[in-house]
Write a structure and sequence with these properties.
2 copies of one chain form a homodimer. With 209 residues, chain A is of the alpha+beta class. Helix content of chain A is 27%, strand content 29%. Chain A binds a DNA duplex (27 and 27 nucleotides) through residues 155-157, 172-175, 177-179, 182, 193, 195-202.
Amino acid sequence: MEKKKINHYETANIAVNAVIFIIKDQKLWVYLSTREKAPFQNLLELPGGLLQPKETAEITLARKLKDITGVKNHFFQQFHTFTNPNRDPRSRIISIGFIALLAYDKVSNLKDFHQIDALPKLAFDHKEIIDRAIKYLKLNIDSQFVDQLMPNSFPLNDLQIVYEVIEGKKLDNRNFRKKILNSGLIQKAKIVQKNVNHRPASLYQFIKS
Amino acid sequence: MEKKKINHYETANIAVNAVIFIIKDQKLWVYLSTREKAPFQNLLELPGGLLQPKETAEITLARKLKDITGVKNHFFQQFHTFTNPNRDPRSRIISIGFIALLAYDKVSNLKDFHQIDALPKLAFDHKEIIDRAIKYLKLNIDSQFVDQLMPNSFPLNDLQIVYEVIEGKKLDNRNFRKKILNSGLIQKAKIVQKNVNHRPASLYQFIKS
DNA sequence: GCAAAAGTGTTGTCATTACACCCATGA
DNA sequence: TCATGGGTGTAATGACAACACTTTTGC
């Protein structure tokens, strides 16, 4: 008896994965959690999850991010979709990769963040996802991205460090200040830095349009 | 009797769609074909197809592009994945969107190309896919992209037109020539334009690295 | 000789780079 | 008073913008 071949195309689960970046101590850090189940048990992995019926990838991701960080209204952006048929040994799951950017002062617990230049072996293709996310971040660095990585108000030198970390090079302090102040993107906040054992900095904030 | 809920996640087919651009007559054109079956019968749609088992999206796309244009080794690039659960009325199909760029002299039949500023109603969410592809193209315009859109050798003024169409503005001829010649990206070809009823142009080509 | 597109230089403005010292605070 | 990071100006260079006429070919 011959079974009619209705459909020789593949069906798959659809996953999202978030590469959540923060900048702290002049380094880029990414959120990872430990897998409790096989496959890749005890290895670190990116947060993510499968799309439920009626969900877009963006809705699934917003739901997941809120669960993970407790922050509402995360900033995130698609950067690539990973479709290698063997990327999950259990079954075919394609993953839509997002970057999510977060100011470190919004993170209540930093222990799940890992420096991107000292990552151990990761589950699945998550190393590849992170590598591509970093490439995307460096290539698309702009004030909208940097805004997300900064606290509400900040010294100019902290802003400079964020640019330096992402661009991977030192910037001239005087030139940086000149440029950023002339850009019209930021303004002086009404408060000043306190409790530092050096000259307190003026604090600035991004002008929300 | 209660049915055990094994999996409340969605499975879906995975499609790729290609937004194939050419530039001709100082306009941007996109490849579309007419749907022969419902849904959206007789409307125009983007080329694409479903992933087969063991195929990555990139492999599926390369296969499809070769079928459509006859060209091997197409240049293409992912730009966005579309996951609206209602984007296909038959079942859940998510689509990975690619741009593909092609020199118009490689196209044997131009009848399936449509000017992007005069598109009729399209099938599915394909209008949205094209809009996003155009945005991506404009935002990421670089010499690698432009190279794909040019014939092997070309007059500088044709190159200028390609930049003008993508950027959506006129460029100064002298400044354009100065800049592009100083960039080190192109070199004079050994041949010269023929059979034109005006002064024949020197032809140039991109230096393949 | 006319139509059509190819090709060519100079000047002003603005953005970017390079570079080194004094300032305000807490301990 | 010392340690720590905050904060400042000027000059040289390079990139980009504005601008109009001559050249070469086919018909």
